Inverse folding.
């Protein structure tokens, strides 16, 4: 009879060594984070997870969008970030500012942010906690996880439910017509960049006079 082990693919010793090195580096990175008393809100604190279709913005883009959100929300304003964790993290870094923010995100790792974290699945756009009152946010920033009309349409329901009016949407350039149709937003001149280059061209869309032109 055949040896049962035969059909189990074996990693070459080279691949195994590379894998071990990878895990070691990861552990060192984790170790560094804790030993540096590092800022829990910084971008690196939670690594992007491609399985969840997460792609972090570059530092400049996240800062620029966070600044825009604070200006748009105004003094004492409320900002909601839907599937846009890197903007949320930038907003948390400038905590001395006068605004409040909440993050709606499918990735439960963000529950480390406590009260401000709201588990969010775009398939159930209005399945929101009672304390998120309709039209209670001065601006909603959203970056739907998938470039599909269905995803945009469902996320749009959440956006429209939460915002008092202002919307800042980040999605692919190919979604321009759908973004106008579902949210009445127009493309800005500002080009958002990601920390890793994505194949799809990304753009920002707004429905108010923003500083992104």
């Amino acid at each position: 009879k055949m040896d049962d082990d035969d059909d189990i693919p074996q990693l070459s010793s080279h691949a195994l060594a590379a894998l071990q090195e990878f895990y070691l580096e990861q552990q060192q990175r984790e170790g560094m984070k804790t030993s540096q008393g590092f800022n829990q809100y910084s971008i690196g604190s939670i690594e992007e997870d491609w399985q969840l279709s997460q792609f972090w913005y570059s530092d400049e883009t996240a800062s620029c969008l966070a600044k825009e959100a604070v200006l748009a929300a105004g003094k004492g304003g409320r900002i909601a970030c839907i599937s846009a964790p890197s903007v949320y993290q930038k907003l948390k870094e400038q905590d001395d500012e006068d605004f409040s923010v909440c993050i709606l995100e499918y990735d439960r790792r963000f529950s480390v942010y406590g009260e401000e974290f709201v588990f969010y699945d775009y398939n159930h756009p209005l399945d929101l906690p009672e304390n998120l009152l309709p039209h209670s946010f001065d601006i909603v920033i959203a970056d739907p996880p998938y470039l599909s009309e269905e995803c945009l349409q469902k996320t749009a329901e959440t956006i429209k439910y939460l915002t008092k009016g202002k919307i800042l949407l980040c999605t692919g350039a190919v979604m321009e017509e759908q973004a106008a149709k579902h949210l009445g937003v127009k493309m800005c001149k500002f080009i958002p960049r990601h920390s890793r280059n994505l194949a799809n061209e990304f753009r920002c869309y707004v429905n108010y006079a923003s500083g992104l032109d």
Remarks:
- Confidence is low (pLDDT under 50) at residues 32-45, 48-53.
- The beta strands are 77-82, 99-105, 117-119, 137-142, 163-172, 186-187, 202-206.
- The first strand starts at residue 77 and ends at 82.
